[in-house]
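Example 444, ligand 5-phosphoarabinonic acid.
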Amino acid sequence: MIQLDTSNARSFVSEDWLSSRLDALESARQKLETGSGAGGDFTGWVHLPRDYDKEEFARIQAAAERIRKDSQALVVIGIGGSYLGARAVVELVNSPNFNLTHKDGPAVYFAGNGLSTDGMREVMDLIQDKDWSINVISKSGTTTEPAVAFRIFKNLLEEKYGKEEARKRIYATTDAKKGALKGLADAEGYEEFVVPDAIGGRYSVLTAVGLLPIACAGVDIVALMEGAREEMEALAVPGEANPAWQLAAARHALYTAGKKVEILVGYEPSFRFFGEWWKQLFGESEGKDGKGLFPASVEFTADLHSMGQYIQQGERIMLETVVRFQNSNSDPIVIPHDPDNVDGLNFLAGKELSFVAEQAMRGTLLAHVDGGVPNLMVTAPGRCAKSVGALIYFFEYVCGLTGYLMEINPFNQPGVEAYKNNMYALLGKPGYEDKKAELEARLG
Ligand code: PA5
């Protein structure tokens, strides 16, 4: 389903960019399939589109139906992998303006993905006169940002509905056995959904982590999983023709040839948060042991009038991975004829806007390649749930493969702990007293 064109990257790498990596790719494939590589305990996502828990899936659908009936707003509390995937899919399949354009079901607000007072206050104001529910999502159940947000929104919900009714409006997605959120959910009797042990946050969008909020936003999660399953089957076939093998090999070859930044390019405003999800997926997976392509994202053609200058003529350290959708979601827009033609645009009269966009994309591609930026073109059928499910699985699989080509563990994120420990110490968390004194002395 997902196609790849590497022809505009080949002049930047040696002729054997793919053939010389086939053995390493086969070894990476086996590690992913069997969970025998570094971080192999976290490869539960590889067969998830086929092996997912069908009983839980039905409960997710039922809970989403209930929320769609009894709530005008859903507050989704989570950060990182417990947030980005759901927002990416809601915006890509629907729209970044989903809360203004949706016709039925709840508006979906995301909270607990930062510590901004203004950001949280805005969500609190937006929901106060509505009927609303909470989906709190945290695998560890102890992450500060969502835990603080949950305490605040739970309090608000209990003030509005009383403890009993509030309980029925809280849905907790967390570990099956451990963590503070698990303990709270058990004690309070919230409906619970599970983040499987074998799936890390950034690979969890196709578990309850993503599926419940996505279903609440009216996206067809059956089609989403079906797209991912078909892609899983297609990518399980080893060999040179496999587009995930090609993309992993091309990224690795370009990285080895000195390209250190990968820019994900989209041409749709609705793609922006998919870029945020993709950045987390690749950044947390590859950026370790002093290695990894730095993942960035841009929205064209808007960013051609800002970042375009740097991409064309700045440091020659970049490659572009463009995601193109074959079909748009809405009716064509035709550019009208103007008898006065003062703007000189009559040469476009009668043409569809999508034709203009296509030529802009083709022209940009060649300009950037001429400027020393290799181009990898990923094509997805459209922005429907099935196609987006396939795109998610495609990038997850590429990420796993490249991680093993780069000889790192693509499934851990030890670097994230450094800021957390400093924050805990500065906040006065018990057990961090010495660290607090040391940091405060440094900060003055
Ligand atoms: O990918 C990851 O593992 C992280 O981004 C986590 O998802 C993020 O830190 C949130 O963790 P948790 O779900 O435990 O609150």
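Summary: The chain has 17 helices and ten strands.
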